[in-house]
Specification:
Blueprint (H helix, E strand, L loop, with lengths): L5 H13 L1 H24 L9 H12 L22 H6 L21 H21 L1
Helix pairs in contact: 1-2, 3-5
């Protein structure tokens, strides 16, 4: 039966298919990547150990899900609403169609593009951290 703890519930669900030990290893790996990324978000600093290409893609895909143009059963009709016709294009730029900035302010948060806005702000913080380390 499910415990209410998302990590334990996921492990229990996975273990039904691949066994408890394999499920624990899988969850440990996923949680490790997520914990490292959460630390980057919390500190606004580059990690001591970089992310692999696959991890970066997974993180960007997860952030892209925050943008309203990637919500299931949602079709925006605003003039600045991101729309993508071809899946090839969607995959190429992770579905990030809104862009950044608003009303002439490139640093403004896009209300319907939380993921894009977060990537913008986090990129700036990480770049500043890198510049501080190099100086």
């Amino acid at each position: 039966m499910f415990s209410g703890d998302p990590q334990e519930d996921l492990c229990e669900g996975i273990s039904r298919y691949i066994g408890v030990n394999a499920a624990r290893r899988a969850i440990q790996r996923l949680c490790g990547v997520e914990a490292r990324f959460n630390n980057v978000i919390r500190t606004g600093c580059l990690p001591e150990e970089g992310f692999s290409e696959a991890e970066i893609e997974a993180i960007i895909n997860k952030l892209a899900l925050m943008d309203s143009n990637n919500w299931c059963h949602s079709s925006g009709v605003g003039e600045r609403e991101g729309r993508i016709l071809l899946n090839l294009v969607r995959r190429r730029h992770f579905g990030l169609a809104h862009g950044i900035g608003r009303s002439g302010d490139i640093t403004a948060i896009q209300p319907k593009a939380s993921g894009s806005s977060l990537i913008n702000r986090l990129s700036n913080a990480l770049l500043l951290d890198w510049l501080r380390r190099c100086a």
